[in-house]
Design brief:
Length: 159
């Protein structure tokens, strides 16, 4: 019985004491930098092979390509340029589909000077967007052996 009374008095006395708690604080620094990213996929290969008599050669089209874009800025744009000029009489054009809220310029011929393709891109992440290439050759281009060009896509922040 004495042991029970002793145990009860310790429990009662202990319950009357304030609980002791320990805390710690830490300052966390953070920031979100400007993010402007574009990626492309597909393996475009274009050959102009046909023409109707009396007409320009038929365009070659590659539409099994796509692109993805992520930006946390407003009014960004995508432009593209070629690594070198196309041969005389040969034109490589590209058409990018626009993510929601943006505007596409439609099919645009490419050269060594950047051309705006999609504008008004704001705070978006999108993938599987259409990317179509078109190759046109005028009769005066003659026969052009297989060659390549690097297309450089650039996304830049808006003003």
């Amino acid at each position: 019985m004495r042991q029970t009374l002793a145990a009860l008095s310790i429990l009662t006395f202990g319950a009357l004491l304030p609980a002791s708690a320990q805390t710690a604080t830490q300052v966390v620094h953070f920031q979100v930098n400007a993010i402007n990213r574009i990626g492309v996929s597909g393996t475009p290969s274009l050959s102009v092979t046909m023409a109707t008599a009396g007409s320009a050669p038929a365009s070659a089209v590659s539409s099994d390509n796509s692109f993805a874009v992520t930006t946390n800025q407003t009014n960004a744009k995508i432009s593209a340029s070629l690594s070198a000029a196309m041969p005389q009489g040969v034109t490589l054009s590209v058409d990018l589909g626009a993510p929601q809220g943006a505007s596409t310029a439609g099919l645009q011929p490419l050269g060594t000077t950047p051309v705006d393709l999609v504008t008004s891109i704001s705070r978006v992440r999108a993938s599987g967007l259409s990317l179509t290439y078109q190759l046109d050759a005028a009769p005066d281009a003659g026969v052009v052996s297989e060659d390549t060009r690097v297309v450089t896509y650039t996304i830049t922040a808006g003003a």
